[in-house]
Amino acid sequence: MNKKSKVIIFLILISTLLGSGLLADEVKVEKKPKKGIGLAVGMLSGIGIAYRQYFTEHLGFQLVGFTINKKSNIGALGLWRISDSKLYTLAGASLIETPSRSTITYGAGVGVEFISKAAPKLGLALELPLVYSHNFGN
Question: Distance between CA 39 and CA 57 in Å, rounded?
C-alpha cells in the first residue's frame, strides 16, 4: 500500500469521526453514556473485536480491529441513534490488509440494536449499509 493510499484512508476515517462530532452540539446529554466491548462482523466495519460508545443518547462511535496470521482489519463507524428508538444511522470505513492485498471499504446505512431485558449486557446489532470497496495491490 503506497503512502497516498494510506493518507486517503486516514482522512476518510478522521472525517467520519469528526463529521459525526459536529452533530453533538444539537444534542443534550440526558443519561449516562453507554459503552461496551463485543464482536463485530460487517460489510462496513469489517471483522474483529469491537468497542462501541455513545456520548449522548444519540451520538456514538464504534471501533473494530484484529490481527491474525498476517491479516489485519481496522474499522471506524460514526453512529446516530434516531430519537428514542433502537434504530440508528451509521457511516464509516474499514481497511483490511493481507500480505498481497489491501481493501478499503466505506459507506453509510441504517442499523437496529436488540438488547435483551433478561441479559442487558448482551446485545445484537443488525446493519444494512450501502458500501463501496476498493482493492490495492495484487
Answer: 22
Q: Which pTM does this prediction carry? A: 0.70
> What's the rounded mean pLDDT across residues 6-16?
55
**End-to-end CA separation in angstroms for the chain:** 10
Listed residue (71, 77, 30) closest to 53, CA to CA: 77
Largest Cα span, the chain: 50
Render pLDDT for 52-82 as a digit per residue (tens, 0 to 9). Answer: 998 888 899 999 999 988 899 999 999 999 8
Question: What order do you get walking across the sheet with 59-68 strand by strand?
Answer: 34-42, 46-54, 59-68, 71-81, 87-97, 101-115, 123-137
How confident is the prediction for the chain on average, in pLDDT? 79
Neighbours of 127 (CB within 10 A): 20
Q: For residue 126, what is its C-alpha cell?
A: 443488525
